[in-house]
Write a structure and sequence with these properties.
heterodimer; A: mainly alpha; three-stranded antiparallel β-sheet; 14 helices; 7 strands; globular; B: alpha/beta; seven-stranded mixed β-sheet; two-stranded parallel ribbon; 9 helices; 9 strands
């Protein structure tokens, strides 16, 4: 009876995600048989990046409001635009515009920034989740929108973005707890260490405005995070909830926030910065797990043991970025080596041929697609981090090859 | 002193080089304990995946060679003339590594029979059966000939110690592809003979030797040279250990790092440096001998 119920539930699940659609069925079968593109069929980075950029452009065009649709879902197609991730997609578009010298990407980034201005709350905060419903202000989402606003100001010189960023920063400072944590307006109303990813935008805002309150708030939170690190490098409270093993996605956020904050605070000698060193410890543990198993799990426990058999592709791309940055800051080539492999792993899962515009060039939340993280969906932030990772890889490998006379 | 080699049954080249090097040092091997090759029957998913990766024709060839190899291995230990011929060097899943390897090789079993060395094949090198075989052979020194990570029950079996030779200087370069990583880091290439403990390449060091690789113009040539050299050094150290001429020095783990399989993009850098005639910089080492 139980087996019958499970089968019935599975069938209903498949109906809901419209597996009867050929493009969906194709992905389902590919993932069932683990038919990733073989290494010899993985294309050069530029082709994968261009495909993911095209996917992000389609996600932006899906809602005609300037924001980027949060994801493509097998069940209902494109979702509403998502302020948080639109915020951090802005720097990706500016970077790609610089690389290709194509003005259209710059124009798109500015449209995103303008849309962010339109969804900002009066108190300076940004709403949680997408704009399909009226959402409460959220600390984390505000931090990510801030990243885009500061970059838009730097690129255009228009004060309106910096003023909006300043209001967001003021709100973040105002709702911070005395001990540096953010409990109010936090996901599940509890403090998280992955909010280091809010510290980094605050430090970017400080760099643009020179207002010390932003830097002080960031440092206060970073110092609240550090004691949460265990001797094995693990950072407590790095997940959405305490009772579920954290996704690699939020683990990578935590590490990135530490890393980028440390790099900003101590630019002359980042390798010796305490926050960079904390990021290094966590990253080395993760690198060891990945290299020994040859597989990056989507969720980890406090002993760095993978607790699931699927990969969180978003987290893989984020981790590749972190490792590439660690290589850049510390010259530990093991991180470059691991990042190259991780990027190959994600590239092998990107579908470059599908007729479905929601699938072609996108990056799944999980591999296989029914994994717990954004199951049966293609989140915009997976494509964003994937592009960032490949752009960074190309730059660092090019620099290395130049030094060696190989370029 | 009873010397026993622990290895994989398909690791012919490496083990035969060790056996020959030991023979040159006038050291007699008491026995060989080898891991049995156990190719699995492919699952339906594997068939689909291989067909997707390689196309129908190459997938059929793959599974056919896997199947044929399985039979060769099972029967390969028994040959009329005492010398076994196999169709190539194979990885554990039976995949042919390269067409260039399509040439006859003397097997470990054939060599053992020729030289009256006892050989036992076990299903798991960390099993109690393996430990029992080592005890039965009255093992004094256990030599690793390309074995996986060995657990405490096996390490407890030999009366003196377990020795391994590592393709880089320890403690700086632990782990895999370490000859390549030495070059990538600009450090000298070398080999280290060390006692084995439950960690990865963390046991006490007995001997380190640098190797001049200026004449190696590719990674393949580098690996060939270091590999050949390491077996000679292992044999030499085994003799010195028996003669009590070596004292183990514990490693300081903090002085080195663990390295992993190197990505092709980084191997290009190593190839380039080798092509230009690589000479390691001794200053890149953090410890002195």
């Amino acid at each position: 009876m139980a087996a019958l119920r499970t089968t019935a539930r599975q069938l209903l699940d498949w109906l809901e995600v419209r597996l009867y659609q050929p493009s969906h069925l194709r992905i389902g079968l590919q993932d069932y048989f683990d038919l990733r593109a073989p290494v010899h069929r993985v294309q050069s980075n530029s082709i994968h990046i261009a495909a993911a950029m095209d996917w992000l452009c389609r996600a932006q065009d899906a809602n005609h409001d300037g924001g980027v649709a949060a994801r493509y879902r097998f069940s209902r197609g494109w979702t509403a635009s998502y302020p948080e991730t639109t915020g951090y997609i802005i720097p990706t578009f500016f970077n790609y515009a610089d690389l290709t010298a194509e003005e259209k990407y710059r124009r798109r980034a500015i449209r995103m920034a303008d849309w962010l201005l339109s969804v900002q709350h009066d108190n300076g905060a940004f709403p949680g989740h997408d704009v399909s419903t009226k959402n409460e202000p959220r600390v984390f989402n505000t931090g990510q929108a801030l990243l885009g606003l500061v970059r838009a100001f730097r690129e255009t010189g228009q004060e309106i973005y910096l003023q909006a960023g300043g209001r967001a920063g003021d709100w973040l400072v105002a709702v911070q707890d005395a001990n540096g944590a953010w409990n109010q307006f936090a996901y599940y109303q509890r403090a998280h260490t992955y909010y280091t990813e809010v510290d980094w935008p605050l430090l970017e805002l400080f760099a643009a405005t020179k207002k010390a309150a932003y830097r002080d708030a960031a440092i206060k939170h970073l110092n609240w995070v550090l004691p949460h690190q265990q001797p094995n490098g693990w950072l407590d409270k790095c997940g959405f909830r305490d009772d579920v093993a954290p996704f690699l996605h939020t683990i990578a956020y935590t590490i990135q926030g530490l890393l980028e904050s440390g790099a900003i605070l101590q630019p002359q000698d980042p390798a010796n910065n305490i926050y960079v060193q904390a990021a290094w410890r966590a990253s080395e543990a993760l690198l060891h797990r990945y290299e020994i198993r040859g597989f990056m799990a989507g969720q980890f426990d406090r002993d760095w043991k993978g607790t699931v058999t699927y990969s969180c592709l978003t987290g893989n791309a984020q981790t590749a970025i972190n490792w590439l940055r660690l290589y850049e800051l510390t010259r530990d080539a093991r991180f470059l080596n691991g990042a190259l492999k991780l990027n190959d792993d994600v590239k092998a899962t990107q579908d470059l041929q599908s007729n479905n515009p929601g699938i072609r060039g996108g990056v799944k939340g999980s591999h296989p697609i029914w994994g717990r993280y954004i199951h049966y969906g293609y989140p915009n932030w997976a494509a964003k981090f994937f592009i960032d990772a490949l752009l960074l890889e190309d730059r660092l490998v090019h620099e290395l090859y130049q030094r060696e006379g190989l370029a | 002193m009873n010397l026993v080699i622990l290895c994989k049954s398909w690791n012919h080249k490496k083990v035969l080089e060790i056996l020959e090097a030991l023979r040159e040092q006038n050291l007699r091997v008491r026995g060989i304990v080898a891991l049995a090759a156990s190719p699995k029957r492919p699952t339906f998913s594997e068939v689909i995946r291989k067909t997707h990766e390689r196309g129908v024709a190459r997938a059929i060839t793959h599974f056919f060679s896997n199947h044929r190899d399985h039979h060769d291995r099972r029967n390969g230990f028994i040959a009329a003339n005492g010398i076994d011929l196999t169709i190539g060097i194979h990885s554990p899943n039976g995949r042919l590594q390269d067409h260039a390897d399509f040439q006859p090789h003397l097997t470990i079993a054939g060599y053992a029979r020729q030289h009256q060395i006892e050989m036992t094949v076990v299903q798991d090198l960390n099993s109690e059966a393996c430990a029992a075989a080592l005890r039965r052979m009255n093992t004094d020194i256990l030599l690793l000939g390309g074995a996986p990570i060995i657990r405490a029950n096996i390490l407890a079996a030999p009366k003196v110690c377990t020795l391994n030779v590592h393709m880089a200087l320890l403690p700086e370069f632990r782990g895999m592809n370490v000859a390549e990583w030495s070059i990538f880091s600009g450090a000298p290439v070398g080999v280290t003979v060390h006692q084995v403990d439950p960690g990865v390449d963390t046991g006490a060091v007995l001997y380190r030797e640098e190797i001049d690789v200026a004449d190696c113009s590719s990674i393949a040539a580098l690996r060939e040279k270091v590999s050949r050299q390491q077996h000679l050094v292992l044999a030499k150290c085994t003799r010195w250990l028996i003669e009590k001429k070596l004292t183990p020095a514990p490693q300081n783990k903090a002085e080195g790092k663990q390295y992993y399989l190197m990505h092709e993009k980084l191997k290009k850098v190593v190839e380039r440096r080798l092509l230009k005639g690589y000479i390691g910089n001794s200053d890149r080492r953090s410890v002195t001998e």
